[in-house]
Amino acid sequence: MPLCKGFDIKLKEILDAVILPIVEEFDKKLHMDTVYESRLQTAADNFIAAASKLPRVSGCFPPCGFQSAGAVYNCDTCQYDSCEFPLDCPVEEIEVMENSGVRMWCDVPFDLPSDIEVIWKFAEEVKTQEMDQFKQVTAGVDRLYSIPSTSLQHQGTYQCDIYSGSRSIVRLYYFITGNKNSHSLSDKIQTEACYIKRCICDCLKGS
């Protein structure tokens, strides 16, 4: 990855202007070596100061996941800085009606390696990110997990854990909860049927 992504040419210009003249003098042995030691340190400080003023183009996508492709070179420390996001994404809540379907996509805004493995896990009835509460449901490469018809046993937290090699790179969470203020379609039909039966019975009794 290039230094200070997007500003390679500008960095080279700064390097040539600050460091190169001293290196050329050193090669010609115009002064004692001790003179260059101090001048090189000063030149290095000047280079860092100038380079640190350049804008950085970050490839990091918040709020979560290990994103190696988003790392950029830090001109102050001369090292690559990772995005430094946590592996665990915030829990997304999904409210569904009983007997309706739900689809959960394990999708992220950053590029993933080609060798990923996707492990879906489930923690029944609770909203959590505690690893020891989850039990594995599926493992493979499918980033879609769907439930054709939900019921009470499907309520809880679903975790999508994406691995590359033996390393977890991002974990997404979906908390599925039922709509307590709504009845399922079958319940509504049964309620309406009972009401109609009562009305018929009342009419018969009155006639």
From TrEMBL:
Domain Ig-like stretches: 86-170
Descriptive protein name: Ig-like domain-containing protein
